[in-house]
Amino acid sequence: MKKITILGSTGSIGTQTLDVVASDPERYEIAGLSAGSNVELLIRQAKQFHPKIVCLATKELAEQARRELPASVRIVYGEEGLSEVAAGTDADTVVTAIVGSRGLPATLAAIEEGKTIALANKETLVTAGHIVMERAANKGVSILPVDSEHSAIFQCLNGEDRKSVRRITLTASGGSFRDKSRDELEGVTVEQALNHPNWSMGAKVTIDSATMANKGLEVIEAHWLFGAAYDQIDVLIHPESIVHSFVEFDDYSVIAQMGLPDMRVPIQYALTYPERRPSPAGRMDLAAIGKLHFRQMDFERYPCLKYAFEAGRAGGAAPTAFNAANEVAVARFLNGEISFLGIERVIETVLGKLTAAGADSLEAIAEVDAWAREAAANV
Ligand SMILES: NC(=O)C1=CN([C@@H]2O[C@H](COP(=O)(O)OP(=O)(O)OC[C@H]3O[C@@H](n4cnc5c(N)ncnc54)[C@H](OP(=O)(O)O)[C@@H]3O)[C@@H](O)[C@H]2O)C=CC1
Ligand SMILES: CC(=O)[C@@H](O)[C@H](O)COP(=O)(O)O
Ligand SMILES: [Mn+2]
After folding, report:
1. What CA–CA distances, in Å, run from 344 to 248, 309, 323, 332?
2. Full domain range(s) for residue 127
3. Residue of the nearest CA to atom 11 in ligand 2?
4. Which of 94, 214, 225, 220 is nearest to 153 (CA)?
5. For the whole prediction, is pTM greater than 0.95?
6. Is 124 in the pocket of ligand 1 (CB under 6 A)?
7. How many Å apart are CA 87 and CA 100, to the nearest integer?
8. Are residues 40 and 60 in the same domain?
9. Nearest atom of ligand 2 to the alpha carbon of 197
10. What is the reported pLDDT for 236?
11. Engineered SS bond to 270: which of 17, 118, 237, 323, CB 3.0-4.6 Å?
């Protein structure tokens, strides 16, 4: 029996993780669940999966859950509650499926208690990759990727000598506006931006996908997860999202991981690794798919990816500022405050204002994060 806690169980990754769990009930037990504000869904999940502890974003929501759930279920709330859910149970694995860098303290709390991390929450690694990786290494904790590209690379590297890796290539669908020119992006709507061609995901990552900031976050995520230099990482547009990423080795062999775009595959692999199990996802039929396409990344078309590479290479506080500026810009776009192209302008402006700041400690990171959020709110 594998014991699992899910941070963000009511979201896209969270619900798909519970699908995986429900598909093989003998194998898994749910130790803890956390939601933001979707209390109704969290209550339903708790009644079905019987966690010992659940967390909601606020005290009021926690009180609402208290009225519905048996007294044996501990109910906590807020940032402290989230860390308690992450660290305070006998779970073996914590799936970090919360959105944004607010997932960082709970992820660190889980690492401190020696929990394996099944990492979907890429913003955590972008914000504080050096600290997360160092603490995980010190505790002997594995960080297993859930993000589809990183799961693909992890699978391609299985059993390989990391020193023989020449290049890691992340594939990118191109997002909801992949067939539009930059001129056509003026005036696109939130509804259009949320219409991802291949994946059904939460709002934030769907917008990130359309701006290509998602691939930027993923480049930095790959740098930390696989110890790859930025010059070794590149991005290729692949509209079908069938090849999830690939690795080129010294002998020019290329190993790719493929499958239908269904997050239940990488989620399950992170839960069963190193074993492979039957999956609730569908079988890929290449003959039916027929053709796969690839085209070179255009950094002028997708400047957010360029800013992410620059931030990653600059290191220090830059990735933290990139992530925070992007989180605020996406929220402002979703609220109708700025245009779609405003997102990249906010990021560019905030990074342009960043003075050489260090990010050696969590305190320094929190300061940069707060500064970048304020700067992004004021652009
Ligand atoms: N969706 C996907 O296919 C993929 C997602 N990822 C990454 O996984 C992470 C999650 O993405 P996704 O599942 O799409 O996101 P969703 O928006 O669908 O879900 C986010 C989860 O976080 C919770 N949450 C939001 N705000 C708060 C808060 N203030 N306090 C506590 N919990 C909160 C939400 O709770 P509630 O809904 O109850 O408010 C929900 O459970 C992101 O980092 C994303 O980049 C990576 C690869 C693929
Ligand atoms: C499913 C997943 O991993 C997302 O992070 C995905 O990467 C989004 O697709 P694109 O970024 O390729 O549009
Ligand atoms: Mn991804």
Report:
1. 31, 14, 12, 12
2. 2-145
3. 209
4. 225
5. yes
6. no
7. 19
8. yes
9. 13
10. 98
11. 118
Nearest in space to 15 (alpha carbons), one of 232, 219, 213, 200:
200
Residues 177 and 106 placed together within one structural domain of the fold: no
Same domain, 182 and 307: yes
Ligand 2, atom 12, residue with closest C-alpha: 172
The CA 295 to ligand 1 mean position distance, Å, reads 30
Ligand 3 centroid–CA 64 distance in Å is 34
Task: Judge if the beta carbon of residue 213 lies within 6 A of ligand 2.
Answer: no
Q: How many whole angstroms from 219 Cα to the centroid of ligand 3?
A: 10
Q: From ligand 3's centre to the CA of 199, what distance in Å?
A: 10
Series of mean pLDDT values for 10-residue runs along the chain (379 residues): 97 98 96 98 98 98 98 97 98 98 98 98 98 98 98 98 97 96 95 97 98 98 98 98 98 98 98 96 95 97 98 97 98 98 98 88 96 97
How many distinct structural domains can be found in the chain? 2
Is there an atom of ligand 2 within 6 Å of 148 CB?
yes
Q: What is the pLDDT of residue 372?
A: 98
Specify if 289 maps to a domain: yes
Residue 97, domain member (yes or no)? yes
Choosing from 282, 297, 314, the residue where a domain stops is: 314
What confidence score (pLDDT) does residue 349 get?
A: 98
Residue ranges of the binding site: 10-13, 36, 38, 121-123, 147-149, 173, 196, 202, 209, 214-215, 218
Counting from 1 in the atom list of ligand 1, the atom nearest the Cα of 200 is 3
Give the model's pLDDT for residue 356.
73
CA distance 1 to 53: 18
What per-residue confidence (pLDDT) applies to 88?
A: 97
Spell out the alpha helix ranges (H) of 170-317.
190-193, 203-211, 213-226, 264-272, 286-289, 303-314
- Within-domain flag for 175: yes
Cα gap 1→25, rounded to integer Å: 9
